[in-house]
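User: We ran a pulldown and think these components assemble together. Before we commit to crystallization trials, I'd like a predicted model of the whole complex to look at. Sequences follow.
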Amino acid sequence: MLRRQVGALAWVGVLGPLLALVLACGFFASRTDRFLTADNLSLVLQQVMVVGVIALGQTLIILTAGVDLSCGMVMALGSIVMTRLATSAGVPVPLAIAAGIGVATMFGLANGFLVTVVRLPPFIVTLGTMNIAFALTQLASGAQTVTDVPPALAILGNTVTIGRTSVVYGVGLMLALYLVAWFALRETAWGRHVYAVGNAPEAARLSGIPTRRVLIGVYVLAGAVYGLASLLSVARTGVGDPNAGTTENLDAITAVVLGGTSLFGGRGVIVGSLVGALIIGVFRNGLTLIGVVSVYQILVTGILVILAVAADQLSRGSAR
Amino acid sequence: MTVLQARGLVKRYGHVTALDGTDFDLQAGEILAVIGDNGAGKSSLIKVLSGAHAPDEGELRLDGAVVRFGGPLDARRAGIETVYQDLAVAPAMSIAENLFLGREIRRAGVLGSVFRMLDKRRMLDDSRAHLRDLGLAVQSMTQPVETLSGGQRQAVAVARSAVFAKHVVIMDEPTAALGVREGAMVLDLARRARDRGLAVVLISHNMPQVFGVADRIHVQRLGRRVAVLDPRLVGMSDAVALMTGAVPAT
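Assistant: Here's a predicted model for the assembly, 570 residues in total across the polymer chains.
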């Protein structure tokens, strides 16, 4: 009985964001008939999938008390690498995809190396790699959108029809990734170690956890996940967009924070980040539907983040 | 039976000689208190014993065999657990998670080997059993450690060491930050660990505490062991006199 109660406690962190999501949906549903339709909700999912996947990688890093400002730019670079190789270089699609994911993973490795071995603050490291990734993206694309992408590269943008609604495959990939991450964080020793490294690095080290290896691993994994997000970005837009990633960059961090993961590390539930990404998506979509111009959408996102961080801070204060 | 023995340990930090040829002897099933003034080399001695620092000279024997520790992990693998003052636990994690941190148990079969699944039930049950054995009353093993009092947290850290130590538990000022009642609870854990046959090293500044719980007292002064006392035969003032050098060691 007691055990069940406390076990459920871990989920309390997600209940707040979930409630916010339901309230937001309720609000927009009451303002317009076009919001709560299967087609529109499918569209929201499709709009959210890139940010959602980036937020997954970001969550891993934030759980270790780090932060990754380069996430969106690395994603954009990955998509340019994929599309350029598959178009002008004529590289077979699977190889182009592997190269794109590989480049993103290398960025993760570089971030992880600088954070754990050179011991630089994650904020500074990823601020640097963010700019590097952005510059490389512009150079590799000549600041031009890469078009005429082979259909095979955008295959995750194809749809499957469920009932009378079509859902893109990419959404399935996003949900699958969250399922895997949720399992790994909750059910494996690796997951425990990620939380421990974020919550109490010294205690983790003294417990015999290879803290550096865990940290580097998390950054590398996050990089690979951004690479998968590159693939989703290409699938969603059908092109290689050198200016992709600018909104996703901060949206991903926003999603993680809205999802209840503490910026101080060691606390949070990965599924919360999916909920956070959905909150952002629902607000963007809903505000558009009721005719609010996009500047106000950005304004609302900004307010949401500050509210979420404040809530996190206040709840920590009362827990101590 | 001597479990851990050191002869002629020397440790220098730059020009400072922290350990100047100190000896050390620890028996199974005893609580050995280590006392000494600031700068006597207590913490250096403990760091060498727990594997945190390597001695410049001298020899360390565990169960009669010479050992060299490359780090705290080596010492831990050899059966020496150390309770650090306050760095020992992850506050946001549960009691059971903390007890098994870094030595999680996986499930049997494919779930464990391929899917790497943890055996949470077993770790919970084991934690409960271990804490009960040590006489520690905690409501729930899934409680985050940060919801516990300072003494209970320290007790979890001590329990963790006592459960996994094969030979030696080193406790560095385990009650320094605790109230009287909670301190007594932690010391009780030390007694129980001893009664289970472990050798316990207790570093403490608190003389009444040392005399209340220790079986023998190692007095450290100016980087050397100057005496080993039996608290039943020697008074507190004599121990303090030896510690400060007011009485020369014989």
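The longest helix of chain A spans residues 2-31. That may be worth checking against your pulldown data before setting up trials.

User: Thanks, that helps.
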